[in-house]
Amino acid sequence: MPPLLLLLLLPTTGALLVALLPSRLAHRVATGAALATMLWSGWVASLFSDRIAHLQLLEKIVWRPRLGSHFALGVDGLSLPMLLLATLLTLVAVLASGHVRTRVKGYFIPLLLLEAAMLGVFAAQDWSLFYIFWELTLLPLFFLINNYGGAQRNRAALNFLLYTMGGSVFLLLALLLAYDALPEHTFLMTAMAEGLRDLPREKQILIFLGFFIGFGVKMPVFPLHGWLPLAHVEAPAPVSILLSGVLLKMGSYGLLRTAILLPDAVSALQGGLAALAMINLLHGGVLAWRQIDLKGMIAYSSVSHMGVVLLGIATLESTGLTGAVLQMVSHGLTAGALFLVIGLLYERTHTRDIREYGSLTVPAPQFAFFTVVAFVASVGVPGTSGFIAELHVLIGSLQRWGAWSALLSVGMLVSAAYAVRTIGVLCTGPACQLRIDPPRRPEWIAAAMLTLTILLVGVVPAPLIGKISATIDQVSDLFAHRL
Amino acid sequence: MTDAWRLLIPLLPWLGGAWIGLGMLTGSRCGEAGERGTARIALLCTGLAVLGMTVLDLLAATKGILPPASRITWLESGHFRVTLGLLTDLPALVMGTLAAGCGLLTMRFAVDYLHREAGFHRFFLVLSLFVGGMMWVALADNVVLTFIGWEAAGISSYLLIGYAYDRRTATCNATRAVLTNRFGDAGFLLGIAMTFLFLDTLEWRNVFTGVAKLDSLLAGMMAAGFLVAALAKSAQLPFAGWIARALEGPTPSSAIFYGALMAHAGAFLVIRLEPLLWRAPFWLAFLMPVGLLTAVYAAAAGRAQGDVKSALIFSTQAQLGLIFFECGAGLFEVALWHLTGHTIWRLYQFLLSPSYLHLSVQPLRPVPGWLANSRTLYRLALHRFHLDALLDALITHPTRALAQEVRLLDTRVFSRVAGRPLNESPLPARVQEKDHAVAPGNDVTRGRGMLGHILQDSARSLAWIEEHLILKSSGEGLLGALTFLGGYVSRIEEFLGLPRYLFLLLALTFVVIL
């Protein structure tokens, strides 16, 4: 059995088992499936060789010879960290879903299918397959938000679906344009990339804009982020973990792939991308500072942090790109941890209004600890994953734009302002009158896993950087003579 | 690397301390039940260190002074290179053996003395740290490593003076002692910096050979830095005040710190610096009056004391003054002998001091006549010649005044610009609970200070943009437009359902086709 195919099949089988077995076993089966997938992704990572920049573990079956589409799966330095992140966060989401008691099957089946689709997006090496998996993620998410979300769940789900579908239309159009522009008709990522490189710059830019709108909605990039606050706030906490932890990364991952596809267009639009990134960074950060709803705050902070990713991509050189990938991982971990803790708190207190919390250290010391670690990591305090990522992006943007990177520091300052403010309100001040039970064991394990990973990446980043550096070097070579 | 084992000898007490500390962290070492284990670890590690030192001594005795042990580079930046290595010349061996031996004896004494004390484990942890530090002071082959040991000893002294940290005098005295010692540390650091600057090396051996070519003015500057450190550590005259305050710690710690080892570290440093001091004759001569004055001061102050420990500490100080005097006179070998003998004797006396009341049959000797008859002298001796008050007037009070002015500037200017923290009161949460039962309203998103106001204003305008342009017009707008269009389409559908409109449409189509 090829390893990547099995990686996709494991959660699918899990979903099937959940459907067939009685509902009281659903949580356990789902946990088992998510755990098995995570362990298998670890095995895939051990098969991965750090030295090779090209695709590895490639599995390719011709699908529709006339269209030139393939069922092609493979990993390189860009997709491997995303695969690991997705499997880890799915396990965390499943562990944190203990509170789902009604319609259990309808919850865990979409959750596991969502995992399979996300893994498919990251492993697909054929654009048509990528697009199929991309669209496949929408349906489970729609049902999860629509059926298990908060008070305005229906509006949020519909809004989310329309927005992303709208983006997908542009994505599809751009894909077809690119397909059409090629002399040989193929959807394979590597073959398309080689063919498209010789296109005239204007055409490349046109195609890139289509891709950019499609991925920009997901990521999200500044004017296209309207769906995000509503969806993140209304989704059930475990789904928010996946939404901000993995789904947003699909956007930036797609953008990275597009950059490889259309290097001329990206280098032509570099300044614009960087400007958008800065707007994202500051806009999201300032609005996060203004939120009183804790989940809303994390949602806007995601906008801000994805701005850092976009900035890293826009540098188009190896340190910045490494920083972008690291920030994708780091934001996945920290946003996941934050949504997890806030979700668990909400489940216990039924309020997300920050003003009603205070001195969590007294009634819920464990929650206070996990919250503080997650917040300081999202600010990028040394010793946490956020520091490594932001440092790389900062160095990359300094090399590219010099003094303009001061704006990045302003963004970091704003994020420090709201993070420290929130820590201050949550953990000090007058004690709140809320009764907060300690986390249950699976929840504790989930939070501890995330915290440990955050610290591990922060203290020993070398293995992770080693996994991505070969591919990143190859990508940055693409741009070296274009700028 | 065959002699790399030697490096382990001064590290052993620290390893023991780390072991104890780890146990305390994980909670497996606490209370009376853990006492045996803790004591065993500390004794084992220090005992092994004593054994190792004995082996080194025997090797040195049979084969002559050993060649330097192999070194491991620890820190490197340009020419600046710090190695882990041992210097095993005569003073080093003597002092190292003394440190390990005295440490072992004191630990064995403390096992019974501190039985069922609250800080039993803490005491052994700190004592291990101290013994290791002293061994590094003695054996380190470069200046930086010596300084590390020096500081480890200083910190553990601070921790043990403040052993009973719930008593106000203990913590005050601990702070006082450690601050006085910081003067010395500053001197030591200056000395290190000048060593590196003038000689481009940090290793003692190269320092000793290097100073021969050094200008005597530069040598004097170097020597001055180190001498400040030595005088502070050994409580010589300008710094003499702290040592009497340092007796707050438990008796075994007083014994080893001030009776025996730590107070002698200063004298040891002077002996270690012998080649440097020969190049700086002024500072060498300077040691004589300082030592002599300290001896007189301590002798007089000691005569006026009524309790055993204080009397002993002043007598220690007087002896230290004499050792410094000997060094000043150039009799370094005599000073080393004096140091060794005095250390051992004083340790014995200090450890015996708790039982003096039982042992001594004769009453306390009265204050000698020459002191008792002069009222002024007696008063001065009792007040320790107002040394502490002098230091207060010269240093503490001006510092405090400056701090107050800076604080004023801070509250009047900087706090206003930078904004005040959210929870101003430093009281713990529980205390505040009653006063602010309700959390202060919209305070959370109110900016404080200049930057805060900028943030607040920009947040307000961005929120307006977000609300009106992005959420309403695009998110909601998309839905709205769809609903709107859907209404039209369904109305058209409705019309189309009516036969006459269908007929009309068909007719229209035909018209177009024709």
Describe the structure.
The complex is a heterodimer of chains A (483) and B (514). With 483 residues, chain A is mainly α. Chain A has a domain at 290-483. Chain A has 20 helices and 2 strands. A two-stranded antiparallel ribbon of chain A has the order 1-2. The longest helix of chain A has 32 residues, at 318-349. Chain A is globular, with a radius of gyration of 21 Å. In chain A, 60% of the residues are buried. Chain B folds into 3 domains: 5-358, no CATH class; 386-414; 460-513. A two-stranded antiparallel sheet of chain B has the order 1-2. The N and C termini of chain B lie far apart (106 Å). The radius of gyration of chain B is 36 Å and the shape is elongated. Chain B has helices at 5-26, 35-63, 90-113, 120-139, 143-161, 168-199, 204-210, 216-233, 242-245, 251-272, 274-279, 281-303, 308-328, 332-352, 356-359, 369-373, 375-382, 387-418, 429-432, 449-497, 499-513, and strands at 72-77, 80-84. Chain B has 21 helices and 2 strands. The chains are: A mainly alpha (483), B mainly alpha (514). Chains A and B meet through helix 7, helix 10, helix 13 and helix 18 of A and helix 19 and helix 20 of B.
Question: What's a quick, concise take on this entry?
Answer:
The complex is a heterodimer of chains A (483) and B (514). Chain A is 74% helix and 3% strand. Chain A has 483 residues and is mainly alpha-helical.
